[in-house]
Amino acid sequence: MKKYDILLADADDTLLDFALCEKTAVTLLFKEFGVCPDDGLLSAYSEHNDQLWKRLERGEITIKQLVALRFAEFFSDHNIKGDGAYAAIRYKQILSRCAYKTEGADELLRRCRGKVRVYIISNGITDVQTSRFRLAGITELVDGLFLSEDLGAKKPDPVFFEKAVSSIGCFCKEKTLVYGDSLTADIAGGNAFGIDTCWYNPHNTVNVTGILPDYEIRDHSELYPLLGI
Ligand SMILES: [Mg+2]
Fold it and tell me: Which residue of 40, 155, 198, 229 could cross-link 111, Cys pair, CB 3.0 to 4.6 Å?
């Protein structure tokens, strides 16, 4: 039974395979610094970056500090010789060209066309994200992009959602679903703003956060009945 007319969908690790994008970009970057990263170094970087994004979500650091810190700290911790600030600039350039969709994301967006309005909600960096959405072929399949850097607020802050939906015509909370992989950003944000939420959990991660979604799914196709597509 169709319940929702508007989908507010997260990008990274929901519609886009960020793990693959990050692995590709970091590998290319580290090679420029003379390091051939093995899986251990790549997952250490990924963990380091995740922690920085969690600190950003908690308001402990700004996006500028995150960008400045991620390679400077990591290089220093792993004895990699190189200028962290320069690496940050190169990483942005390389990541901007890494855009792979998750399994089933393309079909979900194509089925929604003309039936369900879809807006991307992302905490990513504007110029990086807009480039990746364009390359992944997402931009032309959605009705709008809401990026934290543009809005001056980030998920899970209700201000982010308030500013985003203020430009959506015929918006109704009851007919809108927030969809994303992050309990702390997407689901907590939707809950705080009073919109139903669906947690995309393809790897069957155990929820230890206490943050409860209205729905939990493993595959994008499980959204079809809720959206009537
Ligand atoms: Mg995400």
Answer: 229
